[in-house]
Amino acid sequence: MVTIKEEDKAPVFIAKDQNGKKVSLADYKGKKLILYFYSEAGSPTCTIESCNLRDNYALLKKKGFEVVGVSSDDEGRQKKFEIKYKLPFPLVADAENIVTTAYGVRGMKKLFGREYMGILRTTFVIDEKGIIKKIFTKPKNKAHAEEIIASMK
């Protein structure tokens, strides 16, 4: 369950992306950041959400947003996801769940009656000063970019 609230300071993180490059919250100081957490690279719902952000990436950039995706997948799986779907933004490989834990997006999930610990799809919109302005705990995967833009007006 997400315990962070809107207007909280975003938790600091340093992790590696799909290219083994270090990515940190500090890299986005002075910029608006869409930090979205997804369960698994290549899963149907997460792919739809990621592709929606990809398809609207130019508009998001025009509105001043940067985008970073995070899942528990390793660098190799994130890289395959990036290539297959031509994703133009960093995908954090949080295999040790350090970033997901810091943001409170790990929790119990149910699939076909089986309960397991996993990532709860959540998006944080972080302002230029590192303050969380909006949290989406149930993102509209087919229209996620649109709901982000609409919420920032």
Word description of this protein:
The protein is of the alpha/beta class. It has a single domain, classed as Glutaredoxin, CATH 3.40.30.10. Helix content is 27%, strand content 29%. The chain has a five-stranded mixed beta sheet with strand order 5-4-3-8-9. Strands 1-2 form a two-stranded antiparallel sheet. A two-stranded antiparallel ribbon has the order 6-7. Strand 1 and strand 2 form a beta hairpin. It is globular and about 40 Å long. The mean pLDDT is 94.
Note the main attributes of this structure:
153 residues; Glutaredoxin; two-stranded antiparallel sheet
Q: Strands, helices and their partners?
A:
Layout: E1 14-16, E2 22-24, E3 32-37, H1 44-55, H2 57-62, E4 65-71, H3 75-85, E5 91-93, H4 98-102, E6 106-111, E7 114-119, E8 122-126, E9 132-136, H5 144-151
Parallel strand pairs: 3-4, 4-5
Antiparallel strand pairs: 1-2, 3-8, 6-7, 8-9
